[in-house]
Automatic annotation (TrEMBL):
Protein name: Lecithin retinol acyltransferase
Active site: 163
Gene behind this protein: Lrat
Family as reported in the entry's similarity comment: Belongs to the H-rev107 family.
Role of this protein: Transfers the acyl group from the sn-1 position of phosphatidylcholine to all-trans retinol, producing all-trans retinyl esters. Retinyl esters are storage forms of vitamin A. LRAT plays a critical role in vision. It provides the all-trans retinyl ester substrates for the isomerohydrolase which processes the esters into 11-cis-retinol in the retinal pigment epithelium; due to a membrane-associated alcohol dehydrogenase, 11 cis-retinol is oxidized and converted into 11-cis-retinaldehyde which is the chromophore for rhodopsin and the cone photopigments.
Topology relative to the membrane: Single-pass membrane protein
Molecular function in Gene Ontology: phosphatidylcholine-retinol O-acyltransferase activity
One example of a Gene Ontology biological process annotation: retinol metabolic process
Domain of life: Eukaryota
Taxonomic placement: Eukaryota, Metazoa, Chordata, Craniata, Vertebrata
Signal peptide (from-to): 1-28
Length: 232
């Protein structure tokens, strides 16, 4: 028998919401952050300046541009750039709390980290997206320079300015996000199927947090002004 796709889609939506900011898993029974791999964990000899690096997570992919000398520029949600200008604090490895608050506040930064801090133990794909852009690939030095120019505080948006938008702009000249498109298709599928009230509520909550706006059909109209305020 065919399973109802709505609960599955709702579960997928929640998982994506939790993994939206690439939250690092905590070890069982631990109350602290998982430490990054030790320096030298990755062989960077195969990376070239301007390469686009991908780190697949459970449902999402994190992206960065390799700058050479074990440095990666990548966009991450982060609350600190909006409340302090202390570069030493901002440059510290971003914790889960900073990530979550950054998503809620829609603030981020393009930061430069070591490959170990960027990938956090995940496998790395190199220039895997080139096949989708064919003749649009910019020169490696141009891609790296674009990334370097964007380093610093920036706005965060799942739809318009996430880590994938950042790297596709740098390497291909056009900011696009394929995983965002997939996310939106999941949302549309749940909205179209009115058989599950719970699924509709989940869509509304996820829309508030991720997109800054929610469909008026998902929650009582009393919350619509709040949604519009969140949408900015």
């Amino acid at each position: 028998t065919m399973k109802n796709p709505v609960p599955q889609a709702a579960s997928l939506l929640l998982e994506k919401l939790l993994l939206l900011v690439h939250i690092r898993p905590l070890p069982a029974g631990s109350g602290g952050e998982t430490p990054p791999p030790a320096p030298g964990y990755y062989d960077t000899s195969c990376f070239k300046r301007g390469d686009l690096l991908e780190v697949p997570r459970t449902l999402f992919i994190h992206f960065g541009i390799y700058l050479g000398e074990n440095r990666v520029a990548h966009l991450m949600p982060d609350i600190l750039p909006s409340i302090t200008g202390d570069r030493r604090q901002i440059q510290q490895v971003v914790t889960n709390k900073r990530l979550i608050l950054g998503v809620i506040a829609r603030t981020a930064s393009v930061r430069v980290d070591t490959v170990e801090d960027f990938a956090y133990g995940g496998s790395i794909l190199v220039n895997h997206m080139d096949r989708l852009f064919e003749d649009q690939v910019l020169g490696s030095e141009e891609a790296a320079r674009r990334a370097e120019k964007l380093v610093g505080a920036t706005a965060y948006s799942l739809l318009w300015n996430n880590c994938e938008h950042f790297v596709t702009y740098c390497r291909y000249g056009a900011p696009v996000s394929f995983q965002t498109d997939k996310f939106c298709e999941t949302v549309k599928m749940i909205i179209r199927d009115q058989r599950s009230v719970l699924a509709s509520v989940l869509v509304g909550l996820a829309s508030i947090v991720c997109l800054g706006v929610a469909p008026s059909t998902t929650l009582p109209t009393i919350f619509i002004p709040f949604f519009l305020w969140m949408a900015g």
